[in-house]
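Title: Comparing notes on inverse folding

I've been comparing how different people in this forum approach sequence design from structure. To keep things fair, I'm posting one structure and asking everyone to reply with a full sequence. Here's the target:
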């Protein structure tokens, strides 16, 4: 390619042999996300399962943090939650959307069993204690996806975490802010989500010179 005097293309071609450091992460399409939200706001999904799914969808919270969430962590007046992250042990405060606040309120007031356990999300059957672990959250989100008719994607909070990061990135939210929202101890961890932003990645593609096309 030296004859076309495009050093940038030569550098780009040389990069094709560089091993990808991260796999490309799947995300929800706009249509599937709408189906999921509609299901959560309807009666086909319980208030508890809707609140869990919407919380993961909109905040990107880890499953362990959803399991550990306590009633005292919710600030209803400010519409936020404040937690100490289970993985990093760092404090994190996140805003709650109207949808999440509504479903949390519906669950706590109308559906949540009476219990001395102050964790927000409890088992539906006795003993009414907190959910066991991240697998409980996975089962909840998997069933919610099924009821929403979104069956071609592996559900779970890891997937919803990636999806939340993608939405923020597409909205031109800076990586540093996304890192803070996701509660990353190391901001470099957020670079993983660069691979999900197809639209912005396409803007980085170099044009092929007319004379080089066959």
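Reply #1:
Here's my take.
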């Amino acid at each position: 390619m030296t004859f076309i005097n495009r050093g940038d293309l030569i550098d780009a071609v040389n990069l094709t042999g560089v091993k990808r450091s991260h796999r490309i992460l799947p995300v929800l399409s706009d249509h599937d996300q709408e189906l999921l939200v509609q299901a959560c706001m309807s009666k086909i999904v319980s208030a508890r399962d809707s609140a869990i799914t919407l919380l993961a969808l909109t905040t990107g919270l880890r499953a362990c943090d959803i399991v550990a969430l306590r009633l005292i962590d919710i600030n209803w007046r400010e519409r936020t939650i404040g937690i100490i992250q289970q993985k990093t042990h760092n404090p994190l405060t996140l805003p709650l959307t109207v949808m999440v606040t509504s479903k949390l309120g519906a669950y706590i007031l109308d559906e949540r069993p009476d219990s001395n356990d102050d964790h927000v999300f409890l088992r539906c059957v006795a003993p009414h204690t907190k959910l066991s672990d991240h697998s409980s959250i996975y089962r909840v989100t998997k069933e919610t996806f099924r009821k929403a008719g979104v069956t071609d994607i592996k559900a779970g909070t890891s997937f919803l975490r990636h999806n939340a990061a993608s939405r923020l990135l597409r909205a031109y939210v800076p990586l540093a802010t996304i890192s803070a929202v996701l509660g990353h101890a190391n901001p470099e961890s957020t670079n993983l989500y660069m691979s999900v932003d197809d639209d912005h990645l396409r803007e980085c593609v170099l044009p092929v010179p007319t004379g080089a096309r066959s």
